[in-house]
Amino acid sequence: MKPAIFIDRDGTVNRDCPYCRNAEEIEIYQDIFHPLEELSREYYIIMVTNQSGVSRGYFTEQDLEGMHRKIRNEVEGHGGRIDAVYHCPHLPGAGCRCRKPGIGMIRDAMRDFDIDMSRSFFVGNSKADMEAGRRAGIPTICVRGDADAVGDFAAVDFNGMLEIIKKNAVRQNPEGLAVPKLGLILAGGKGTRMQPLTYEIPKPMAEVAGVPLIGHLVKEFRRNGILKIYVSIGYKGEMIEKYLGDGSAFGVDIEYVKEEEALGTGGGIRLGLEAAEKSYGGSDIFIANGDDILEMDLKPMYELYKRSGSEITLSLKKVENVSGSGVVVLEGERVKKFIEKPEGMEGSVGLVNLGRYITSPRIMDKFPKSKAFSFEKEFLQGGAERLKMQGYVVHSEWHQINTVKALEDADREYSARAEETRQQK
Known about the structure:
By secondary structure, the chain is of the alpha/beta class.
C-alpha cells in the first residue's frame, strides 16, 4: 500500500484550451516534469479529468487516448511516471458517478490500486477539483487556480506543489501527526439506564457544564482536526439535528444518517460507514459513542493503527472496576480477547473498551449479515480470532455517563473547572 497524487489535467498539467481536440493541441507545462519524476518514486501518480468533449462530439475516445499518451510519454521521457488516467466523458448534469466533483474516478483508482488514502493528495486548479479532494477526504493543493478555487494549500506551479507535499508528508505520514479525516458519532440509542431523564431528551443531549454531551464530542473531533462528521441518529434524533445543524457553528461539516428502526450499535455503525464509503471511498474513520466525555489526542492511536496494519484499533483504559464494560486482554498491542460486560467481575481491575475506534469501511465485509446487531457483543467479542485488532491504552480522564449520578458528577466537576477558568481570566 502506498499513497497517491491525484492530478487534474486541463489547466493543471497542460494549458487549458477550449476542448483540446487532439494531441497536437496539448501544450504541457514544463514545470511538471521534475516534480512528477521525484514524486513517482514514492506515490502513485493518477490523472483524473472531466472530458465532456467526448459526449459533445468534439473529439473521440481515440483522440483522447492520443492526448493522454502524449502526456504520459513526455512525463516518462523526463524520468517520471503517470500510473493511470481516468476520464469522465459525460455532460454536466448527466447524473454520472464519475464527473468531478464526484469521486467516481477516485474510487475506480482505489479499486485498481492499493492506495493509502490517509497519505494522499489531490492537485488541481478548479473548484470542482478542490471539492473532489475534500469529498475523498484528502488534502487539496490548488495549482494555477481559478478565482473561486480554494484548496487546503496553494502553489503557483508544480515546483511549489512539490515543496508543499514534502513539507506536509510528515504530517500525512502514519508515523507522524496524521489523524483520520472522517468521524462517526453514534447517537441513536434510547439511553434506558438514564431514565427518566431520557424520556424527554436523547442521552447525547444531556448537559455537562451547560453543553450537551454530543457538543463536547464534536468539539473534541474538531480539536483533533476531524472536520467531516457523520452522526447516526435514531431516538429523538431531531433534537440532536436541531442542536448541531450542519456543523458550521462548530467549524465542521455534519451529515446525518437516520435509523428508521432500532439497529443496535453495529447497525448504526454500518449506516455511517456506508455513507462515508459512498462519498469518501475507503478513507479511515474515527468512531465514537456520543454519550461520554473523554479528551484524547488521536495522533498516537492513529499511528498505531497505521503502523500495525490493523483492521480496527480500539481505545482502552485501565479502570479499578470493569463491571458493566467490555473487558479487553492485550498481548502486547494486539487484542487477545474481548468480552462484552462479563458477569462476576465486580471490583476487578482491568482494561475496558471506551467505545472509540479507528477503522475503515472495508471492515463491513466482516460484519454479521443481520441488519441490526451489537457491535460489541456480536462483532468485537470473538473478533480476536478473525480480525487484526489492536488496542491503544488511553491515560486521560474518562467520564462514562451511564447513570444519572454519573452525569451529575461530571456536570459538577466540569462546571467547577469552567468557573475556575472564568475567575482566572
